[in-house]
Amino acid sequence: MRDADDLAAVAARLLELDGPRARPSPDARDVERWALALRRVLFPRHFGRDREGGRGSLVEDLAELRLGLERLVHDCLCSACPEGAPPCPEVEKAAEVAREFVAWLPSLREALAEDALAAYTGDPAARGVDEVILAYPGFYAVMIYRAAHRLHERGVPLLPRMLTEHAHSRTGIDIHPGARIGRHFFIDHGTGVVIGETTEIGDRVKVYQGVTLGALSFSRDEEGNLMRGVKRHPTIEDDVTIYAGATILGGDTVIGRGSVIGGNVWLIESVPPGSKVLNRPQIDVRL
To answer: What is the pTM of this model?
Structure first.
C-alpha cells in the first residue's frame, strides 16, 4: 500500500497546485479536428467527403462545423468559471458566433483563393493552385490564421490561440491571431516564421522561412507590469518581400511599400518605400 499512498499524496498536491476546479477547457484534439473540418468545407473538391461536388455532404459538414464551433466557443467562455457556478451569461454568444462564422465562410474562401494564387504566381516550383492547397504548409497556416483572427475579433477567448498553435505545431509557422494581414499573402517554405500579435501586414506581401516580425521591447506600467495590447510589432506595407532569416522588430518600425528586405537582415528602424535592405558581410578570401 505504500506505493499507492505515495501516488495519492502526489495527486493531492498536484490538485492543490492546480487551484480551484473550473469547467473543462477545450481539448486540443477537438480543436485540431475542427480545424480539419474547416478545411474540408472550404475545399470540398480537395478534402470533402463527396469530391464530386455534391451539396448534400457539404451541407452536413457545414452543420457539423457550426455545431462544433458552438461547443468550442461555449467551452472557452465557460472555462474560467468555477465548477458548479451558474451558466455564464455570455454563453448565448456561442451560437451567435458560430452562425456568423459559417455565414462568413464564402468571404474567407475568396480571400484564400487569392492567397493560393499568390503562392502559385510567387513560386516557380508550384505546378498549380491545387498543389498549393493540398501541400503548402504556408497556405494551411494562413487559412487557420484567417479563421482564428475572425474569432479573435469577435472576442472569443482562448480558441483563436489554440487554433494558431495547432497550425504552428503542424507547419512550424507561428502567427498570432491578433495580427492583421492583408490580401494575396504568401509564406514560402515557412518553417520558423514568427508574426507577433500587433503586426500589421498590407496586401501582396511575400515572406520566406525564418522571418521574425517581433517586439523590440516590452512596455511596463508604473507598477512594473507588462502593458498588454500596445503596438509593439512592425508594420509591413503593401508589395514588400522579406527574405529568409530576416528579423524586423518594434512597434514603430514601418517597412515602406514595395521594399525588399534581404536575408538575415536585422532591422529596428523604419525604411522608406522602395527600399532595398541587404546584408553584405565582408568576406576575407585567402588563397
So the answer is: 0.87
